[in-house]
C-alpha cells in the first residue's frame, strides 16, 4: 500500500536503517587444505562508523554519518528539511527504533507530516535499504579500502556521495511487482 501511495505521488516514502562499518571485513567461510590451518589476524579494537540511511526507491539517499547512536536527532533534522508531501519512513523493529526517545518524538513528527511505519519482526528482506548496505559492503568496497581507517571512511563517503549517479540499484521490479500484487488483489 505504501509503495502504491508513493508511485501515485501522494507521499514521500523512505526506507531507513543503520549499518556498521569497521575495518574487520566479514568472512563467513573459507577453504583450506586438510591439516594446514589458515590463520587470519583479528583486530580486537576497531573504530566503527554507523551511518543512518534514508533511501527512496528512485535512488535518492540521505545519510547521517555518526560513530554513535543518534536516531532521534537525525530524524528530527530530516523532517525539518521541508518536504512537499507527507513523509513515511519504514523502519525495522530494532530496539533503537522502538525506544522511549523515539516514542516521545512521534507526536511532534506527525504534526510535521512525518510518520513511522514499523516492519514485522525479523523481516530485513522487506527493507530495500538492506540491499544498499549489502552492495556497499560486498560489491563496491574493495579489499584495498580496508588497509586503513581513513581509507575505509573515505571510500564509504565517496560511494554514498556518488550513489544515484555512479552507484545505482534498480528497484523497478520491486515497485512494479508490489503495485501489480496490490492491483490484482
UniProtKB/TrEMBL annotation:
Any one Gene Ontology MF annotation carried by this entry is:
nucleic acid binding
All copies of domain Tc1-like transposase DDE, residue ranges? 13-150
Q: Name one Pfam family in it.
A: DDE_3
Q: What is this protein called?
A: Tc1-like transposase DDE domain-containing protein
Origin organism of this chain?
A: Rudanella paleaurantiibacter
Amino acid at each position: 500500500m505504501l509503495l502504491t501511495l508513493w508511485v501515485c505521488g501522494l507521499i514521500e516514502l523512505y526506507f531507513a536503517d543503520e549499518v556498521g562499518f569497521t575495518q574487520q571485513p566479514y568472512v563467513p567461510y573459507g577453504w583450506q587444505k586438510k591439516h594446514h590451518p589458515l590463520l587470519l589476524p583479528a583486530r580486537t579494537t576497531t573504530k566503527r562508523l554507523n551511518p543512518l540511511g534514508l533511501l527512496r526507491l528512485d535512488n535518492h539517499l540521505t545519510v547521517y554519518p555518526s560513530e554513535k547512536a543518534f536516531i532521534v536527532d537525525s530524524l528530527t533534522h530530516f523532517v525539518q528539511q521541508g518536504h512537499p508531501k507527507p513523509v513515511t519512513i519504514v523502519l525495522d523493529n530494532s530496539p533503537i527504533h522502538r525506544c522511549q526517545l523515539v516514542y516521545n518524538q512521534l507526536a511532534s513528527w506527525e504534526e510535521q507530516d512525518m510518520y513511522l511505519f514499523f516492519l514485522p519482526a525479523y523481516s530485513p528482506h522487506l527493507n530495500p535499504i538492506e540491499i544498499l548496505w549489502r552492495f556497499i559492503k560486498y560489491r563496491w568496497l574493495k579489499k584495498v579500502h580496508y588497509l586503513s581507517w581513513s581509507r575505509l571512511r573515505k571510500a564509504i563517503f565517496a560511494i554514498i556521495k556518488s550513489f544515484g549517479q555512479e552507484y545505482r540499484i534498480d528497484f523497478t521490479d520491486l515497485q512494479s511487482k508490489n503495485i501489480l500484487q496490490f492491483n490484482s488483489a
